[in-house]
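User: Sorry, folds how?
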Amino acid sequence: MVKPAAPVFSYFNKPVTNTIPSRQASLVEVYHLIKGNEFASCTSTLRNIPDPKEARKYKAQNFDYVTFSGTFSKRNDANLQRHSGLLTIDFDHIQDIPSLRAALLNDHYFETELLFVSPSGDGLKWVIPIDLTQAKHQDYFKAVANYVSHTYQLEIDQSGKDISRACFLPHDSEIFINPKYL
């Protein structure tokens, strides 16, 4: 079996106000970065900040990020160069992360490409493939949001509908990547 090429997207150096990508990165590369110790210190620091406003400020200043849905010349939807075929679903304030993680990994409808705990530690980032020959990015997002609501009784962060949505890169030693890429 031939290993498929991992999707590619834009990588941005901190802070989040930096909207010019430093390079392109692949799903496999980001998997190794999140699994490794590169982001362990800033993730630990963030999770120990009790004030939500201070935590949000810290995250914006101290985390590199990617745009999983594509490569950009500048981070905004109008500057999309190429869509990656990926959609990021953001689950916030989850009570039972291990149960949701297991359910998403066993979802019979969507194949998981990448799944990891969010920088805050109380959410999940679920990266799934979408087929843009079937529907537009925003239409897929609405359909997946509806599916998640009915299947898991959860509402997802609506900001994921933006193709250029920034996804901060935390440390998660238990990150999942679709084994077809390894």
